[in-house]
Amino acid sequence: MSDRYTSFARSGPGRAIVKRLGLPDPPRLPRYRSGDAIIPGPVLVGPSDGPRYEELAKLLGSNEQGEKHHALVFDATGISTPAGLRALYDFFHPAARSLTPAGRVIVLGLPLSSAADPGQAAAQQALDGFVRSVGKEFGRGTTAQLVRVHPEADTAALRSTLEFLISTKSAYVSGQTITVDATPAAEGKDLTGKVALVTGAARGIGAAMARVLARDGAHVICLDVPSAGDDLAKVANEVRGEAYQLDLTGADAAQRLVEHVRERHGRLDVLVHNAGITRDKTLANMDQTRWDSVLKVNLIAPAHVTEALLDAGLIPAGGRIVGVASIAGVAGNRGQTNYAASKAGVIGWVRALAPVLAAQGVTVNAVAPGFIETAMTAKMPVLIREVGRRMNSLSQGGLPVDVAETVAWFAAPGSAAVTGNVVRVCGQSLLGA
Question: Which residues are in coiled coils (predicted)?
């Protein structure tokens, strides 16, 4: 769907008007294409006396001499007092203008649970406000993230996360806090030989997920309801996967899926619960069917299907489970009490399930999309659609591929230390936390 305002803002006359009136100025966001460099430009790592400086500089190829940098990476894990926060200023103040357009800012911190005293906790919590502000301030498509690293985590366990956040795969992810634990990275650079299942794969975000997971080497089972059969077959053929028609809210759906996976593949390495519906009405005007159907599809079915697959032993060590939440589940939304409840439920489910499955070597995470350009958002009233596009630090809507790339990062073998996270793909929406 075309964004006429963005096209106008990038035109000659439009640029002048946007600048003069102080209107939103959507930057160009480069997206990853197969063959692109994962780290597309010079990276500046600091401080030089940081606990992980040498390892990070080696991993990311730190370039201290260059005048321009694609990314600024700062290790704040050694900051133990509020006074120590001055190191942020000392590093970023002179380097801020060295960032190229669509640059990246990443700050490494510690989990608050590992703070030794209130002073260290205050200093580490301060990183959150700093990073979110940078994401709103630097502009020109720059994104900013805080990565909280377990004190015992090997720097190699950070590789998958740092590469995702520095690459153009994270174009629409900003202002996020991500936790990396001490689990060693698994072997394998991509998903070659892995079996992935994407629900709701017939169109939109689900179809993009299928494409990106297949690009990364996975054999993708594309699942959707029978009424979407034609579109589902097209996507499955495109990714050289398989189409499986099934309504997951059916009484025997979970068992049928278990039997299908067992007979065809014997295991499921990646499970992505993307299928979702909306049935919007204000609560006073909402009938029971609208409430029940949304909760069944968005929350009850994913939990039930996951339980069945786990009980059948079909998700092995190294498995990845990804739920799809929504910014509505974080901030709420008028006319969407059912939808917001279901998506907030996904967040709670993921956070509770992650530590339970950690002992089995299975990770559980969630993406929470904001305004993504899909057929559904194209049907919104013009004013609401424009507000959704502009109410974020990047002043534009995201693309389905932005959500898909985040799922692929969660699914990667190198992301074994990433679990229990809920990452918003929203361009740092101004709504919600």
Answer: none
Look up the CATH architecture of domain 31-180: 3-Layer(aba) Sandwich (3.40)
Q: Which of 32, 172, 244, 339 is catalytic?
A: 339
Per 3-state DSSP, the chain is made up of helix, strand and coil in percentages (nearest 5) of: 45, 15, 35
Q: Which tokens go with 270?
A: 């990646």
Q: How far apart are CA 407 and CA 232, in angstroms?
A: 19
Tens digits of residue pLDDT in 44-93: 999 999 999 999 999 998 777 778 999 999 999 999 999 999 999 999 99
Report domain extents, the chain: 31-180, 195-425
> Which of 129, 126, 105 lies closest to 115 in space, CA to CA?
126
Q: Do domains 31-180 and 195-425 have the same CATH topology?
A: yes
Q: Nearest CA to 195 among 124, 302, 272?
A: 272
Residue range 195-425, CATH number: 3.40.50.720
Provide the whole-model pTM: 0.96
DSSP 8-state assignment for residue 372: B
CA separation for the pair 173, 392 (Å, rounded): 11
Secondary structure (3-state) at 295: helix
